[in-house]
Amino acid sequence: MRSLYRRQLTMMVSIMILSFTLLGAAFMLLSYRYIIGETRDSVERNAGYVSAFTSSYYLQNRTIQSQYYSSYVASLAMISNSHIIIANPDGEILYATDGRNFYTYQNNYLPDALVKQVLQRGAFNGMTSLGGIFPERRYMAAAPIVTELENLSMIQGLVLVSADASNLSEMWSATATIFFFSAVVVFLISVIASTLTSAHQARPLNEMAEAARKFGQGEFDVRVTGYEGRCDEISTLAEAFNSMANSLEKVESQRADFIANISHELKTPMTTIAGFAEGILDGTIPPERQRESLEIVVSETRRLSRLVRKMLDLSRLNALAENAVTAQETFDLTDVMSQVLISLESKITARKLDVDVQMPEEKLMVWGDPDAITQVCYNLVDNAAKFAAPGTTITVQITKKDGKAYTTIRDLGATIPPDELPLLFDRFHKADYSRSMDREGVGLGLYIVKTILGNLKETISVTSEDGVTQFTFTLTLA
């Protein structure tokens, strides 16, 4: 398997090699053309100067065989660092100088093809050794010497100006060397930087992969640290990874607690039922106490039945949450709350509680699942009746605000500690202060309330101060 580090490094090296290859080819082509172009323009310009001067000098003196003329040509050759040849129209060489010396060549005639091209086209430029006159190929420009005599144009000779091509090659070679040296340095620096960057990016990913493997082995305390200050995608990924790890650890803890709680809740009534049943069967419990024992068995059986029913409701709610399908219809919230209060009237009366109902007189239509909201209201009012101090008042209030219906159930009893409030909606959680009072509860009522409202995209909050505990949930107005 190719690692991310190797893939990124290979891609970077490939892109750089391709880029430098194309850039180098373009640079060499353009630089060579530029240098040749500069040389061509120079020799053509100098050839034009010599041709014009020779033509003018010939008109004045009727000859170019003079010391002054040869000195001028030699000076121009020295200034332009070129080689100048003067020939007659037949191609016979008259002068040949590089500015320092005058040369006589064994072959005193120019190539016929070059002479014909200059006479016919009026110019020549290109690389040539003039048929062996020069030992090496030189870049050369040629122009005719034209004089005007009585409106007649006559070609009196040829001017050839050449530049040493070796200088051009040396200049181009030096320029190319500088380019390639710079390219190699930049390439090495880029490879090193890419290597460090790739390693820097791959290291946290490897750590996260190792942490994920440990999660699979049940080690939920592993975290990816050391990337908080990077302020880039890696730090964001590390933060999200650690958040996921915290969630997994919490889920695992809740799973363990769930198993422990459900085991405890099932074990207690089953032990009680088995104990009294065995006592009746083996005669340990006398006949006069068997009815009392059977009543306890019935009570524990009902408690076990409630626990199973709550578990079934919880399973149904979780299935709805996973499928994200919740019934939505309009119904009268005041009517639902009134029915709940009527169904709990006997329990409220038995605990000598009063109910202060503050609801609108007209209908209050909301969106939701009426059966589910009935269960929410029932659980909250039943919870308030269970923990309210005898002789106090339960307050049920429904108000409207910003497109929402706010339902509040308030009771007066023991104050719930602040650190217990966030845990009230957890499965099987029962606050310590209520354990002895809530003998019949199984710790699922508020969790079911939270799940139902969560499925409806609604919220619920709880506060408890100075003995006043208040639950408030929202529903969307229709």
Q: What percent strand?
A: 15-25%
User: What composes the largest sheet?
Assistant: 5 strands, antiparallel
- What percentage of residues falls in helices of 4 or more residues? 55-70%
- Mean pLDDT across all amino acids: 82
With strands numbered from the N-terminus, the spatial order across the biggest sheet is 2-1-5-4-3
Query: What ranges have pLDDT less than 50 throughout 5 or more consecutive residues?
Result: 432-439
Question: Which radius of gyration do the C-alpha atoms yield?
Answer: 52 Å
Number of helices: 10
Distance between the termini: 58 Å
Shape field: rod-shaped
Classification by helices and strands: alpha+beta
Describe this structure in words.
The protein is α+β, with helices and mostly antiparallel strands and 478 residues long. The chain is built from 10 helices and 12 strands. The chain has helices spanning 4-61, 67-80, 112-121, 165-216, 233-281, 287-323, 333-343, 345-350, 370-387, 445-455; strands at residues 83-87, 93-97, 124-128, 138-149, 152-164, 329-332, 354-358, 365-368, 393-401, 404-412, 460-465, 468-476. The strands form 3 sheets. A 5-stranded antiparallel β-sheet has the order 2-1-5-4-3, sandwiched between helices. A 5-stranded mixed β-sheet has the order 7-9-10-12-11, with helices on one face. The protein has a two-stranded antiparallel ribbon with strand order 6-8. Helix 5 packs antiparallel against helix 6 (287-323). It is rod-shaped, with a radius of gyration of 52 Å. It starts with a helix and ends with a strand.
